[in-house]
Design a protein that fits this description.
By secondary structure, the protein is α/β, with parallel strands linked by helices. It contains twelve helices and nine strands.
């Protein structure tokens, strides 16, 4: 619960507490809270060997609280490891939504003196999300499935073009356990295994993907951003309710409200489950997509299949 508390800070015993972690009962002052968040990020990165000395990081920054907080923290700690950072941003083509966040990202990166690279779905795939959703003829094709497929490819390409060998995303604890349940409900066991946070190199360029905010509750990230004066877009994606994720998020938030700490318990269980499943995943021989020539486990990669599907829908209009 993020509310003012007149009790003293449990850490320093010197200042008044402003934040209480309901799942632990811990009361923290502003300074100790901010430090605890940054320490947890460092601990997560060390625990899963996410970053090495001299790595070049591409931080996926959307303009939301998570990605901007991630960029801010990584910028604070990267210099000690001789890491370089580039912020990469994807414009999905969502009218009245993405333009605001891109401006926030540009200004934030300018203030931190961090280079920001932007690419759009329109430039890469010939179509934006608004256009894609306007031509779909089947309710089974959701914006989130199309956007997720395109986003992963766009981030990979931006990272490669900028010579990065590590991609950092702002996924938090809430995101992680929500994705676990989505994969359970869809029967995607392999994806659960691949969600284990210790990064592996993939693709011809050997990029590693990391999630340094993985052990942080979403509400703690919001509180951190507000107290560090990090500007972020509060407007939510207009397509967000097409996914089952919203229902899962609401359900888990209700559980956490009555049973503080249950999300953290789920998170620890997911780590154990994903670690076990990852060791059992059968590694299919990698081939090249017949269309784009990028690595794929199938003859046609998911990105090219999606582009062909949308092109077919467009031709019917």
């Amino acid at each position: 619960m993020t509310s003012l508390n007149l009790e003293e800070c449990n850490k320093c015993r010197e200042r008044v507490g402003i934040y209480k972690r309901n799942y632990s009962g811990e009361i923290l002052c502003k300074a100790c809270f901010l430090l605890s968040v940054e320490s947890k990020v460092k601990k997560t990165m060390n625990c899963f060997s996410m970053v090495k000395h001299g790595d070049k990081l591409a931080v996926a920054v959307s303009g939301g609280k998570d990605s901007l907080t991630l960029l801010y923290i990584l910028n604070k700690i990267s210099k000690s490891m001789a890491n370089t950072i580039t912020a990469i941003t994807v414009d999905e083509g969502i009218g009245g939504y993405r333009s605001e966040s891109i401006q926030i990202v540009k200004e934030f990166c300018s203030n931190l003196n961090i280079e920001n690279k932007i690419v759009s779905y329109k430039d890469l795939f010939g179509i934006g999300i608004d256009e894609a959703m306007a031509i779909r003829s089947s309710t089974k094709v959701t914006s989130c499935s199309v956007c997720g497929t395109f986003r992963r490819r766009a981030i990979d390409l931006l990272a490669e073009w900028n010579g990065a060998n590590v991609v950092a995303t702002g996924h938090n604890l809430d995101d992680h356990i929500q994705s676990f349940f989505i994969n359970v409900f869809s029967g995607d066991v392999d994806r659960i295994g691949w969600s284990y946070p210790r990064p592996v190199e993939y693709g011809t360029s050997g990029i590693r993907k990391i999630k340094p905010l993985l052990a942080l509750y979403e509400k703690e990230i919001i509180f951190y951003a507000l107290h560090q004066n990090i500007p972020f877009q509060s407007l939510e994606c207009p397509y967000m309710n097409e996914s089952i994720r919203t229902e899962i998020r609401n359900f888990l938030n209700q559980l956490e409200e009555t049973r503080p700490g249950i999300k953290y318990n789920i998170y620890n269980s997911v780590l154990k489950i994903s670690a076990g499943l990852k060791s059992q995943i059968s590694h299919k021989g990698s081939t090249k997509c017949l269309v784009c020539q990028r690595q794929s486990t199938n003859k046609i990669c998911s990105v090219c299949k999606t582009v062909v599907m949308l092109s077919g829908q467009s031709s019917k209009k």
